[in-house]
Design a protein that fits this description.
Chain lengths: ~250, ~250
Amino acid sequence: MFQSVKLNKISENITEQIREAIFHGKLKPGDRLPIEKELMGKFEVSKGTIREALRSLEVLGFVDIRKGASGGTFVTEVDMNRVRDYFTNYLLFQNLSLTNLSEVRLILEPYIAEKAARLIKREDLKKLEEIVEQSEDTLNKGTSNKIEFHEFHRILGNISGNPILIFIVDFIEGLLIDTKNRLGAGNDFSIKVLNAHKRIYKALSKRDARGARIEMAKHVREVERNLVAIQKERRVGHYSRSVFGHF
Amino acid sequence: MFQSVKLNKISENITEQIREAIFHGKLKPGDRLPIEKELMGKFEVSKGTIREALRSLEVLGFVDIRKGASGGTFVTEVDMNRVRDYFTNYLLFQNLSLTNLSEVRLILEPYIAEKAARLIKREDLKKLEEIVEQSEDTLNKGTSNKIEFHEFHRILGNISGNPILIFIVDFIEGLLIDTKNRLGAGNDFSIKVLNAHKRIYKALSKRDARGARIEMAKHVREVERNLVAIQKERRVGHYSRSVFGHF
DNA sequence: CTATATTTGTACGTATGTATG
DNA sequence: CCATACATACGTACAAATATA
């Protein structure tokens, strides 16, 4: 299955081999790789080298490493969340503004809403209804978990059936979640979002494409307006200082 | 709400600290990190741990590790290309179709063209003109380097001034380049693209926002139509895992 | 060509977390 | 609840490869 090789960086080579095996379906999600000791034998390298390779695969999100009995290295479901998170943080530290974010949302989200209104199925509507109800519950309980708000948009993206669109929406919503967390938007804001989602849901349930598009556009603009206001009010603090000051 | 980050792994913790230092600008591109031995002292961990951390940062594209005398670990210019490639790989891994690609282009590109028509400056026009001329030259010489076509779209994206939009356009054009290469679109196709770009350029040079938008929309549709036709001819199916079918 | 600094790789140990009987 | 086996996590010491000056 694997070949023992000697090239530039051995650990990199091993990373590649395993990555390719995953891409080719030779290793499927859920599969467990051999334990370190066995890999040492198969690749004919030492433990440190194996560990560097596995760690690399881990940060790239290809495998999940668990320790303890019945632990080991497991091939994960392919998702780019891990890598994406590393860079969304970076983008937030760049000269990325709320306006930039909203501009892109305003291009995509109304389109997605309109398309969803045409393609939406009963089970999609049910899922959206559940999400809205859940949002309302957590909001009343004061536990205000804003993740549900973004789940609403993700579901709409999924209805589009376009993998690229789904990916971009995920990406954008991820950026927005980070932004909201930093700003610490309050309950009054959440209520507005909830009501907007209700209006969009209503339009979708009636298969009203135009209505869905218009409500979504209003919603995106409202979110921008409110977040910008919060941003002006509060001084946007930066993250705490790194322990890395002694360089 | 906030991820209770329990980093049970020391190496991960170190990766995180250095990453934050880079994001905060404490470590700038070109900076060299201390050598492994010193890092062992500063973080009070062993060499293996340090190396796992540095290797992680390397695969994420944050640092470049060079060996030999006056080698070491250097902070790299943060380029989104690295991440973009991972995203691209991920999407090609899905059953992505030409229609999916064109749908997203049709949402974004006309918008970008319209916005560009309003914001465009003399030097931007000059750059576009050069690109168009270059395309024509290489086309006449038969060397037909299609990269210039995509550069045209990238320049337009840059005029928007929105980092996210720029990122997405780069990403989409990257996917398209891959598609074209796979299909092997011929010269007749390239001529159509060139003419479309000329029409868009003309609209832009007149600051005709509506014209730019319309021409761009026509262009995107034409590209889709032609590529789909080629795809049918050659019976090249959707993307599949065979994309990675070269060991 | 010869030092030298630095990463790369090896070998073998202990510590820690986790499932299981 | 406890003991035990398993697998990763981490540590130490040393040898090799390699790029630079």
